[in-house]
Amino acid sequence: MRVSARGDYAVRAALALAARYPATVSTQALADEQRLPRKFLEAVLADLRRADVVRAVRGCDGGYQLTREPRQVAVATILRAVDGPLAEVRGMRPEQVTYAGSAQHLSELWVAARSALRDVLDEVNLAQLATGRLPSRVRRLAATPDAWQPR
Amino acid sequence: MRVSARGDYAVRAALALAARYPATVSTQALADEQRLPRKFLEAVLADLRRADVVRAVRGCDGGYQLTREPRQVAVATILRAVDGPLAEVRGMRPEQVTYAGSAQHLSELWVAARSALRDVLDEVNLAQLATGRLPSRVRRLAATPDAWQPR
DNA sequence: AACCGATCCTACTTGCTCGGTAGGCATTGT
DNA sequence: ACAATGCCTACCGAGCAAGTAGGATCGGTT
């Protein structure tokens, strides 16, 4: 799983919007709060707008606001909007790659891995993430003995 | 999760080696069986050798062989050898990124997602994958209703 | 000693993506 | 009119991904 700067910034901006929901917040304010490069963040927010995650308000006192309640927005939705599909194999969807011979069952593994990812990222929403009250299954994953150890 | 061509090829080559374990197989034979570009595969196998997943035999009738039994080799080991860590956020390990303000709990989510990935990729080995007898938890993940549907 | 099939090493190419910057136009409340 | 904001296009430098090319080296066979 590779979360790009775009993905990271997008989630952080969305969290900042969730914290002030349903207020409208300017790019500058979001950039300041999360210490993000303003111009780059602009491009990221444009992605979120095209994905209908946020709505833009132009003109003086403009900015962005979530199009729906924080708890209605899954983190996966945000990541997909800016980084594309959660899982890809050689640039293709896991279910689209096919294998021959001894690799026959490989796509089943890719699909399972994607499914595991979805079970985390599609199930956590902005409200939970903002308050830190993650679903118990997710909390358990992060609490396993060496979950915080690199491998 | 982004599996590159390197990662895909590496797992397929390893599976082909597992199928013939403990025989020595040439790059050419591996490339033929899985239809991979030979020269590129050479570079991938070099990675696996440096990670001590395979051993190279030089000279006539040379090739590669697994350094241990197929069931002792996790898929994650192969992916890490050629693609680096399973999960990265902005080029860093999930446990290394820190956040302020409304994004405070974000690293917990990244760690949970990585943990979920590990629970699949670190638990499946070449023997299971070659025979298709995946662990029941993994099989269940791939069998959930819309696991094979794109989102 | 010669040969042949194999790995190994270095270099190169081509195209794409990533992260970010710059400038200016369009919109809107005051 | 003005100022603050979003919107759009273009650009840049660095790095990476996916190969390709050519040859050096090794080692068993003849």
TrEMBL record, chains A, B:
Keywords: DNA-binding. SUPFAM superfamilies: Winged helix' DNA-binding domain (SSF46785). The keyword DNA-binding applies. One of its GO terms (molecular function) is DNA binding. The keyword Ligase does not apply. One of its GO terms (cellular component) is cytosol. This is AsnC family transcriptional regulator. It comes from the Bacteria. The lineage of its organism: Bacteria, Bacillati, Actinomycetota, Actinomycetes, Micromonosporales. Coiled coil: none annotated. Gene3D superfamilies: Winged helix-like DNA-binding domain superfamily/Winged helix DNA-binding domain. InterPro entries: Tscrpt_reg_Rrf2 (IPR000944), WH-like_DNA-bd_sf (IPR036388), WH_DNA-bd_sf (IPR036390). NCBIfam families: rrf2_super. It holds the Pfam family Rrf2. PANTHER family: HTH-TYPE TRANSCRIPTIONAL REGULATOR ISCR (PTHR33221:SF5), WINGED HELIX-TURN-HELIX TRANSCRIPTIONAL REGULATOR, RRF2 FAMILY (PTHR33221).
